[in-house]
Amino acid sequence: MVEEISDSPSTSHPNPENSESSSELDPITMRNTKPGFKRLFLSLSVLFSFILGFPLLWKSIEIYRTPLPFPQIDSFSSEIESNPLQFPCQFQAIFIGFDSRVSHGEVGSAITKKMYELNPNVSQCGHCSSYDVSVVVDSSFDCVGSGNLRGSDEDADELLKNCLGNGVDGGKVYSVVVVNGEEEEVRTVVGKYRHAWIVGKVSEEEAVWRVAEIFAKVFVNGGNEGSSIRGEFMPVGADGRIVLSFSLLNANPQDWIYDWNFREIDETLLQPVVEALHPIANITVESQVLYHTPKSSFSYWNDEHGSHIFSTKDLPFFVNSNEWHLDTSVAAGGRSKVLQLVVYIPSANECPLQLELPNGDLSKTNGFISPMWGGVVVWNPQSCKKDLESKDPVRHVISPQDLQKLFEILMGQLRQLLGLKSDNLYVGQSGTSILLGSERGFSEWELDVLSRKHICFNLLSCATTLGSLSRLVQSLPRMIIMDEIGKQVKFSLEAAKFALSNVSIGMYDASAVSSRHSRSLAEDAFFHPSIMSISYYSFEHCFAIYSPFFLPVSMHVILAALREWKRYKQENKKYLAWKTKAQVTS
């Protein structure tokens, strides 16, 4: 069989050359055909499609963030925190009836030295930048005259206003006129503008001491011992608004029912107050009459005083939160501050009701305040006897005289809530000073004190809020920042800079309005609904969400492309080795 096959003419005999070439070609190290690009092209196409699709995926999950002026925010915050805001103040002392040969500079230096001793914390925010005092020593000041200040305080106050004015270059000039006379009793009066006067027999040293105390303690500090106002005791809302809510509470309407003519009081007494405080806060007034509003604390009968007594220890329990539905304001919106001013009329079982002070005396105002909440005044009807013959409760209207007295007490409580004195006396180390009241409820120097404190507080609050917003936004890269937030931050910084520029030239009213707007805009930006309503996640959270799907697929694509590239390089290397050997052989 083998022989037949070998002899068969159809049997092909191998070519010696091909046989030699095939024997020399090693399939492991060489190949005689060029490797194809099809598999490599498909692998790289899939890989590049993933690479090109990644920006589209990143764009699809991208959030909108308007750019915020982070450097400006940091600069403003550091400026406010490192450099306490101080105000330009001018002090003028006029001595009448003293030796005119006395050196003005020495007297001014002595007053300045005493002012620093009385109030050393000049560097605190809200204080005057310096205590430079100008002195005028004259035997007879032509405009004032020695006898004109001994008459009516109101006339003397108007006289000094016409003579002294309010200073130059927009600054606030605080003046004290000292008239050295023959009166043994030294009388000190602080007017409702920006001046005071001292009349009586005083020595030069005593006059210097009294003038320095009025400057440092009254005109600068507002007559309070505390040199600063803490932020939590500033009863102005974050939006710069205050709602004065007046409530008349009838504890038991079955005994009697009292009403009031609030509109008349609003027009005559409250509107001047609202206008005076307008640079500091936007004030809204509202009123209500409530019934069945008993107090939470207990009282006891005192034969010595002939009335029911509640002490200062009972004050925390006096307000009945369950029965006193005071928070019904329709004017308070957002972050407005509501101050409750309550007139409480007790029932017949507790009438008359008096507040006993810790020293055992009865309170003259029969009221109290609660910081940041408001105040309460207990008003007892003239006749505490219930009309037993009448089945229906008797309806009364508080007389205009009683109503005016009540609102004078309430205005005193409002002054205390704002950080001022409620009475018209200042008792200092050098003596007692009379503080003249104003028809607007606040004198001009008191409004200056309030403006300085509120400007300082508003700018500090604005810097703190914007700094917190800046750190929050930078710590959450995926937080949505709308264009409105960027505009609010921008306008807040502009208002703050405008307030600072007005402070430098002594324009308190304009600076107070600008500082209030800057704080309000900063709060609006920080509490914007687009920030508060969404839960933000970090980049790590986003990676954890998408990686279980994309990571396995991406790894397979990348490994396949690397494997095909490695295979192509190996096969191409084999082809090049065969081609080189073939050229050498030929």
TrEMBL record:
<keyword id="KW-1133">Transmembrane helix</keyword>
<protein>
    <submittedName>
        <fullName>Putative phosphatidylinositol-glycan biosynthesis class S protein</fullName>
    </submittedName>
</protein>
<keyword id="KW-0812">Transmembrane</keyword>
<dbReference type="GO" id="GO:0006506">
    <property type="term" value="P:GPI anchor biosynthetic process"/>
</dbReference>
<keyword id="KW-0325">Glycoprotein</keyword>
<dbReference type="GO" id="GO:0016255">
    <property type="term" value="P:attachment of GPI anchor to protein"/>
</dbReference>
<comment type="similarity">
    <text>Belongs to the PIGS family.</text>
</comment>
<keyword id="KW-0337">GPI-anchor biosynthesis</keyword>
<keyword id="KW-0472">Membrane</keyword>
<comment type="pathway">
    <text>Glycolipid biosynthesis; glycosylphosphatidylinositol-anchor biosynthesis.</text>
</comment>
<feature type="region of interest" description="Disordered">
    <location>
        <begin position="1"/>
        <end position="28"/>
    </location>
</feature>
<keyword id="KW-0256">Endoplasmic reticulum</keyword>
<dbReference type="InterPro" id="IPR019540">
    <property type="entry name" value="PtdIno-glycan_biosynth_class_S"/>
</dbReference>
<feature type="transmembrane region" description="Helical">
    <location>
        <begin position="40"/>
        <end position="58"/>
    </location>
</feature>
<feature type="compositionally biased region" description="Low complexity">
    <location>
        <begin position="8"/>
        <end position="24"/>
    </location>
</feature>
<dbReference type="GO" id="GO:0042765">
    <property type="term" value="C:GPI-anchor transamidase complex"/>
</dbReference>
<dbReference type="Pfam" id="PF10510">
    <property type="entry name" value="PIG-S"/>
</dbReference>
